[in-house]
Every structure is written in structure tokens, then in C-alpha cells.
Give the backbone structure.
Amino acid sequence: MSTFPYVVVNAFTRSSLGGNPAVIVLLPPGSLAPNTPTPVLDTPAMIALAKSFAQPISVFLAPPAPGTDDGIFDIRFFANEHAPLICGHGMFATTKTIYQGLLPGVRNPGGEDNAVKFRTAAGMVISARAAPSPRSAHQEDDDDGEFYEIELPSNVVEELTGEERDRARDAVAKALRSDSSELGIKFIARGGGKMGKYLMVVLDEHEELEGRDINIPALLETGPFNVISLTRLTPNEDHAFVSRTFAPANGIMEDHVCGSAHTLMVPYHASCTQSGLKGGQEVYVRQVSPRGGDLWVTLDEEKGVIRLKGNAKPFAKGELTL
């Protein structure tokens, strides 16, 4: 019989009922490191636990093994049976967990810039850290003295054309309960490379997203896409753009706040002169799902990364026994 501590943390919010929840399960040090011969939990066990938790993402975290000097935390993500290559909100919530010592014996080991480093199943190393409050954030928005920031690789988009575009447009119109010929769509694209299962649909500024009743199953008709983001610029608002993200093919009807989707949306909107979003400039954006999320984003073109900054709110903690 084995016991594992866990916490639930809401990412990109300071509300107990807002943002995107992630359950973070602590595994023994080094147990997820590359070439580990006998993992404490194998993939089927992690999938079974993810299904039992029934949270948007289940994160499995293993601190560095004793005697290692890289200070890297190994991390795995599961949403039901789906194992995303990367999960921005899951790592963001885990960053809060490490800095605040929410799991027993787990603290940031320090290192360059006092950053936390995560290694994914694909071997990608992602950095995160405590960060200064954004200049646009109100003082009362910070409930524990720290904001957090995560760096994700920036991604290119590839515009859809022809029948592929028409199919996606018709499905989005059906989801938005609108006529395809009347729906204001400016741009439809897939992510490049490993992000090819992501679809980004840019709507006209007059198309409302917040509070809109969306027929989410209709988005399954867009084509071979697992993650679909709808976004629009918000002229004359205190935020640069808004978005909503859906992943019904992965069993997630709405992804309350999707960090990885911003690696497509931020570079795209930065390329639009009317967005007010420029490389190197931090701007406030909102994900307007029913739970909602607040992010401060920066495009670092020189390093090829997107920085996502915000709050995270602990919600629950406990132990699981197998």
C-alpha cells in the first residue's frame, strides 16, 4: 500500500472558484527521471488516477533525486486518457505549489534566477519563477505577495485554406449558433509543427465571446483538431484580447484557461498593429470562460518564448492511497 500527497490549485486566478484547476500528485524523488527502470506509477495507473480525480488536468510531479545537481523536477500531465505534450496551466499551478511549499518536503532548490525547472515526458525543459506584480495589476489582486511567471516556446501558425478552412468555419458557425455567411471571422489557422492539433479562430471585434452560449460538441466537426481556441481583439478595453478554448476530442468541453493556446494567440495578435501588443511588452489579456482567467503576457522574440504571468489559488489538499 502506497500513499501520495496531492493538492488542487487554480491557475491564473486568485479565486477559489475561478481559473483552471490542476491536481498535483507528489511522487518520490527521481521516480519520473529518464530511464527510470521501475516507475512508482506507470502510465495506466496515472491515467486511472486522472480519471478518478476528474479535474481538467492531473499533474504527477517527482522532485530531483538525491545527489543530482540539475535541480529539475520531472512532470507528467494527463487529461483523462490524453497525455498532452505540454500543459501551461498545470505547470503554472505546480510552480505555486513549489514556491509556497504546499506539498511535504518540496521547495524550490534554487539555481539560476531562482527558477523552477520542469522536464516533460518529451524531454522539454520549461522554466518558471516567482515574478514582480504586473504594473497594471491592482494591489489587492495579490493575495500572497507573489505573482508567478512561466516561459513556454512561442509557436507559429499556418493559415487554413480551401475545403479545410470552409469545414472549420462551418463548424465554428454552428458552435456559435450563427449563420456561416454572417459570422465575422478574420483568420483561421492551425499550429505549426508539434502544435498541429491546435486550431486558432480569430473573430471580428464585434463577435462577443464572454457569456456566449456555445454548442461545444459542434466543434468536433472542425477537423482533426484536439484543442480549438476562439479569440478576438478588444479595442478600447484594459485588456488586449480575450479568448475561449475547447477540447471536446480530449473529453474537456471547455478548457477554462489554456496556457499552451496562448503560444499561438500571443504571436498572432502581436503581428496585428491594432492589437497594441508588441514584442517585449507585457500586456493584460483575459480568458472569458465561465470560470475566467487573468494573464499578463509577453512575447520575447529574441528567445522565442511566451511569458505568462498571473496568480494561482490553492483550493484543496489530501492524500491518496493505492
User: Anything to note?
Assistant: The CA atoms of residues 115 and 180 lie 47 Å apart. The chain has a mean pLDDT of 91. Residues 162-175 form the longest helix (14 residues). The radius of gyration is 19 Å.
